């Protein structure tokens, strides 16, 4: 029996709908396994900007800080015209959470279900045997050029007499690289013992340093094989020979692009969960933020059409990594796989299926199976 | 009848083998259509570093400058350990050519042949109707953080008492964005009249400026529809719904990653040609550099195994864009498509084919068809 505090941040667009299903699953786990989960729900993103004037309030931040885990939905994007207005932007909630809680490792498992091969644009023979885990660096790189408080990392648009120019800075310290690469090797040691490190070392200085660090860390893990791969080559191999990968570790923006690409192997980005972890521990695991890989999808919002599986599998990762409840996590994953194998489909994975179900029905079936 | 001077830079690895076939095709065109092509062959890349101590000599550069077009093979990578040695790097040849000749627009057409659907890892129903053209910005961005001569654009590894860090700078001026975006809209006006501009405006300042410029240029092209797409979303859509794209314009590194990914639609990166163009004109077209998208593939070198189609289709682009020989370009493209439809396959596209042919045989058949 476990007691845990979870802060829920549903956010914008389809965020609240998919998060509701993930919460229902956590409720079912709580009951079945007799745990007590204390849940605090708070606003983030556009929702928070409208209600509280900021993408995430200090108050919400405090609540998060006193939890064992954070369950996150999605945050919206401002319309194009507004990105340069200088006001608060919804993504800042995510950036602040990632940065201030030190979530440097973003885990994104990609394991296509055989029963969903029909939903993927790839041929089944290319999907067979695919089971990879991305470890995306989440706390540095081009994403944090905007933090003016960090000297030497500008991100700005300069309007001068000579004309307008814009600059972003890709900066990595050795330590920022090392901690995420170490995490990747440790995880690989418990899997197929293979690490692919992705960079652009033929162009970027930060990638040259990245390679140096990887080689040093690799020397400490003689039982794990590793390879360097250029990001452009990796973008090919993910589609061509996805089964060759085990653990893929890469910097922030490369990880963003490659994981979205790889999501297509599973049939839909709606299937993918993620866990963001740092150095802070909870009583029985790591403090972490759990969110589906998909975004807020405003065009689907409020229509009971989004796929809740990414959010539900994120809840499974929460049980595993933050609460140390491996059996419960596995039970949720089994329930998801069962329901999908039985033919239950939301529209995003509904290729060739007669009747697709809505967000709530998909969630209900998974809860029932539990 | 046309007189033209072409400088050929075969480079490393499979570069010389595929370039030889492209040259054979140009020779056949010369004869059949009674043109006179004066060809100068020069060293670049590792080949030049070994023979001349630099990735591209000033002398070679001069020869290039006095040509109508450059036919480029591929340049190798130094082994990982050597990237940080500080000595000349083979890629510098490419960077210097791109930068000093002002080749800011890199055109990469992706049009999978129906007869090669079997070679692609994508399902045929997803490939159907795909015909897209990437316009990759080639003269700025993270690639040129290394040029120490440009102030405010550092790319370096700093080893200080506080520790080691590495920095790369992503800088775009409005002018650098505008010229390539304008090129994309102009090209789109002669195609399906649709531009997809790819950026990461929810994170990067340079992307926010990119969007501003695109909107301004779009206003000058009311008959062309356009959309903004985030790079992560684009990495998905390229596999999911590739037929939806017409012209895709994006910054340097995004273009590098996305075009390699998109090459998988055609079955192999060995199929893809490219043209790099700037502002300089020739007598009947644009001065340009033409190269297959694939790299030097050292593991295949010297074995008559590489696919020469990317190089041959690059020669077709050379005929079209630099020499103004549209009919000849179309004839080369038709010959390639014919030979492939007839079942001729190098090993990279040989999925399910009994006997594959070598580099030379593939070239010979295309020449024969001409
Ligand atoms: C919303 C956006 C800023 C975010 C990112 O780029 O990190 C998203 O794409 C992700 O992958 O979590
Ligand atoms: C060789 C390498 C530097 C080059 C690049 O990244 O531009 C290549 O990948 C390309 O796409 O032309």
From TrEMBL, chains A, B:
InterPro entries: IsoCit/isopropylmalate_DH_CS (IPR019818), IsoPropMal-DH-like_dom (IPR024084), Isopropylmalate_DH (IPR004429). It is found in: Cytoplasm. GO terms for molecular function: 3-isopropylmalate dehydrogenase activity. Mg(2+) binds at residues 232, 256, 260. It comes from the Bacteria. SMART domains: Iso_dh. Binds 1 Mg(2+) or Mn(2+) ion per subunit. The record marks 143, 200 as: Important for catalysis. Its cofactor is Mn(2+); Mg(2+). Its main location: cytoplasm. It catalyses: (2R,3S)-3-isopropylmalate + NAD(+) = 4-methyl-2-oxopentanoate + CO2 + NADH. Keywords: Amino-acid biosynthesis, Branched-chain amino acid biosynthesis, Cytoplasm, Leucine biosynthesis, Magnesium, Manganese, Metal-binding, NAD, Oxidoreductase. NAD(+) binds at residues 295-307. Belongs to the isocitrate and isopropylmalate dehydrogenases family. LeuB type 1 subfamily. Homodimer. Catalyzes the oxidation of 3-carboxy-2-hydroxy-4-methylpentanoate (3-isopropylmalate) to 3-carboxy-4-methyl-2-oxopentanoate. The product decarboxylates to 4-methyl-2 oxopentanoate. This is 3-isopropylmalate dehydrogenase.
């Amino acid at each position: 029996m476990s007691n845990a505090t979870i802060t829920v941040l549903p956010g914008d667009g389809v965020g609240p709908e998919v998060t509701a299903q993930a919460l229902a699953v956590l409720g079912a786990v709580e009951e079945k396994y007799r745990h007590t989960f204390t849940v605090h729900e708070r606003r983030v993103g556009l929702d928070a900007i409208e209600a509280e004037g900021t993408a995430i309030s200090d108050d919400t931040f405090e609540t998060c800080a006193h939890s064992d885990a954070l369950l996150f939905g999605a945050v919206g994007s401002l319309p194009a015209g507004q990105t340069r207005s200088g006001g608060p932007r919804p993504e800042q909630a995510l950036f602040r959470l990632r940065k201030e809680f030190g979530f440097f490792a973003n885990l994104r498992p990609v394991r296509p279900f055989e029963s969903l091969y029909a939903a993927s644009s790839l041929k089944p023979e290319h999907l067979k045997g695919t089971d990879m885990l991305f470890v995306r660096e989440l706390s540095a790189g081009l994403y944090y050029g905007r933090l003016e408080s960090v000297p030497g990392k500008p991100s700005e648009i300069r309007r001068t007499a000579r004309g307008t120019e814009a600059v972003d800075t890709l900066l990595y310290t050795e330590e920022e690289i090392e901690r995420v690469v170490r995490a990747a090797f440790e995880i690989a040691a418990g899997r197929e013992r293979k690490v692919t490190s992705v960079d652009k070392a033929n162009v970027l200085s930060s990638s040259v340093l990245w390679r140096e660090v990887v080689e040093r860390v690799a020397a400490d893990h003689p039982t794990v094989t590793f390879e360097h791969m250029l990001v452009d080559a990796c973008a090919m191999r993910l589609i061509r020979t996805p089964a060759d990968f085990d653990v893929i570790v890469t910097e922030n923006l490369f990880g963003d692009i490659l994981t979205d690409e790889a999501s297509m192997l599973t049939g839909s980005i709606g299937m993918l969960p993620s866990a963001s972890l740092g150095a802070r521990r909870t009583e029985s695991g790591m403090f972490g933020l759990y969110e589906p890989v998909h975004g807020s999808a405003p065009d689907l919002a409020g229509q009971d059409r989004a796929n809740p599986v990414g959010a539900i599998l994120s809840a499974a990762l929460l049980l595993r990594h933050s609460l140390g409840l491996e059996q419960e996590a596995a039970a949720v994953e089994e329930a998801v796989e069962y329901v999908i194998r039985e033919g239950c489909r939301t529209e995003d994975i509904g290729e060739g299926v007669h009747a697709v179900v809505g967000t709530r029905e998909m969630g209900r079936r998974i809860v029932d199976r539990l």
